[in-house]
Amino acid sequence: MAKRKRKRNAVAAPPSEPPVRPGIIGLSRTVPAGIVKPPYADSGEPGPSVSSLVRTPAELDAMRKAGAIAAEVLIHAGSFVEPGIATDKIDEIVHNETIRRGAYPSPLNYRGFRKSVCTSVNEVICHGIPDTRQLLDGDIINIDVTVYIDGVHGDNSCTFLVGDVDALSRGLVTETYVSMMEGIKTVRNGSKVHDIGRAIERHARAHNLGVVREFIGHGVGTEFHSDLQIPHYYDPRARTELTTGMTFTVEPMLTLGDPSLYLWDDDWTALTMDGRRSAQFEHTLVVTDSGHELLTVASDGTTAAELYAPKPVEAVK
Ligand code: MF3
Ligand code: CO
Ligand code: CO
Questions:
Q1: What total number of domains does the chain contain?
Q2: pLDDT category, 315, cuts 50, 70, 90?
Q3: Is residue 176 in some structural domain?
Q4: What's the confidence (pLDDT) of residue 85?
Q5: Is residue 39 domain-resident?
Q6: Which residues, 6 or more positions from 120, have their beta carbon under 8 angstroms from its beta carbon?
Q7: Residue 265 CA to ligand 3 centre (angstroms)
């Protein structure tokens, strides 16, 4: 039989099976009195952003420490990812490991978020709330860890494979990581915010992946989310020049299908409309004269993604 080229996307691919459904959300976890809380921890309201986009040297030192803790907590959480674990158990692990290191889990009561970490499975794009749902063999899960210590936040995430994951999903996870790194590579004193999104979108497009537009990277430092906005697609209006000392996240969410999304009634959990999978990675970084420095790196120099993200493989010819 003669081989015929089939047009990409000619056949609708199936959505993730079975769809992720909400489980039961347990009580918020408590933080010991000795841990210094961020300003919103009691009220749930961070208020308007007032912080400078540029960090002082002392703030930067604090962010290296917060970033290292965030990275180490994320790596720790990743070691527990396996079929059968409930996302609320991951919340417990992240919560306890964060306070053990003297830090506050930034998501807890941020704008009323009830848990200490975000866990986003399969077609959940981001902001999944840990609950009783157990991970299934073949799932992918993004764990997004942010910690607050010494007056600053460190924010990072990684998508982990649960057991035996299909090749298409593994490719999604790999290329999402690569796209984040392509975006980060553009960052130096004098580059533009839109250089980041342009590089990410170019990589996504080359792999026929969608780019989520509704959630973007953000300034981070003394505030969890400050005014700087980092789209992960090319936005010609994002002409802000990056200068030495600015700290922000790059956190692209890429999709196998259409990146349109909707929210569950909890007003947090964001999912793809078409039910196909989404992956995300995130780093916090600082702009330097010659480039940038990743802040969400463990004290031994490793990152969760380097340890856990699937590596690109030779394309099958
Ligand atoms: N860590 C997420 C981010 O990357 C924000 C989570 S907000 C929360 O920006 F309230 F859901 F925790
Ligand atoms: Co972030
Ligand atoms: Co995050």
A1: 1
A2: very low
A3: yes
A4: 98
A5: no
A6: 126, 127, 128, 141, 142, 144, 269, 270, 278, 280
A7: 21
- pLDDT at position 15 is 74
pLDDT at 17: 75
CA of 9 to the centre of ligand 3 (A): 31
Which residue owns the Cα nearest ligand 1 atom 8?
Answer: 107
Q: Kindly list the protein residues whose Cβ atom lies closer than 6 A to any atom of ligand 1.
A: 107, 110-111, 113, 118, 127, 144, 146, 155, 218, 249, 251, 282
63: its two tokens: 């962010």
pLDDT confidence of 278, banded at 50, 70, 90?
Answer: very high
Q: What is the CATH number of the domain that holds 230?
A: 3.90.230.10
As a residue count, the chain comes to 317
Greater pLDDT, 12 or 294? 294
Query: 216: domain range?
Result: 53-308
Tokens encoding 146: 């942010």
Strand partners, 219: 226, 248
Give a yes or no: residue 44 inside a domain: no
One-letter amino acid of 11: V
Q: Distance, CA 167 to ligand 3 centroid (Å)?
A: 26
Higher pLDDT, residue 1 or 77: 77
Question: What mean pLDDT do residues 181-205 have?
Answer: 98
- Report yes or no on 42 lying in a domain: no
The tens digit of pLDDT for each residue in 292-311 reads 999 999 999 999 999 999 98
